[in-house]
Amino acid sequence: MASVDSALEKALVGERISKQEGLLLLSSSELQRIALAADRARLRMHPEGVVSFLIDRNINYTNVCVARCTFCNFYRKPNHDQGYLLPKDLIFKKIEETLALGGTGILLQGGMNPELKIDYYEDLLSSIRSKYEIHLHCFSPPEIVVLAKLSKLTIRESIRRLSQAGLASIPGGGAEILTDRMRKEISPGKCTADEWLDVMRTAHEEGLKTSATMMFGAGETGPELVEHLNRIRTLQDETGGFFGFTPWNVQLKGTLMEETVRETISPVEYLKVLSLSRIFLDNVKNIQVSWLTQGLAVGQLALHFGANDVGSIM
Predict the structure, then answer these.
(1) Taking every pair of C-alpha atoms in the chain, what is the biggest distance, in angstroms?
(2) Which of 166, 183, 90, 94 has its CA nearest to residue 129?
(3) What is the pTM of this model?
(4) What are the tens digits of pLDDT across the range 56-76?
(5) How far is it, in rounded angstroms, from Cα 149 to Cα 126?
(6) Exposed (0-12), middle (13-18) or buried (19+): which is 13, by Cβ within 10 Å?
């Protein structure tokens, strides 16, 4: 019979834990022992003891979006007077500033803008590629699902054309929690869990690496959080295409969700979920701490709770 002790014993020696065992660890108060098991897992994956990071820049090319996510205060509905689509010259300027500071990549993400079809994205990527030597980590699965539908293309056709235009990898945004109950509640206009996973599966099959994320603290249950981890692990078993995983807690200030979700995730709760992610995702090499949501102090502490990567220094 599964128990916290047996789950931790398996985790300490690198054996795969089950969903039931993951749920036991999530609900356990044994934070120090969970952290030790996660730190051991990190050391097995990264015996060199190096903490990795990127010098890159996030560029939000549009804030026009139809998704209606209750945790977002960034988007504007189509035809809103505060909606924007960045001109290419401004995107180029941001890239040049990034390169001048030693940057090696950009993350291009935006809203799901119903005016933008595949030709916009191909033109943008190819224009950047023709001018700059920089890694293009762009367009989360929900964006790709929408642009494919608008362009009357399959997901595979869309990813293939984006890749040919210069796309190098795909960010793991828009995952939230990969259960449709949660997605219907907090992001009713976004792709389904299966669609998100299908974009990533197809990208991996087409030779693109991707990241994965999890946004928690928005009202999901423990089993839903563990199911999210399990779906990432299952796809990774199939394709091996995820290079990293980032759990982050929802930021409520100024959002519609602020009115319905009263309790914020504490640093202790965050660190437990981070450690569980490292233990559970035994086939994903890199676990990234979300220092932007947690602050630098917790970000440093997280390096003893399973994280080996701090992502972008922004």
Answers:
(1) 61
(2) 166
(3) 0.95
(4) 999 999 999 998 888 778 888
(5) 21
(6) exposed
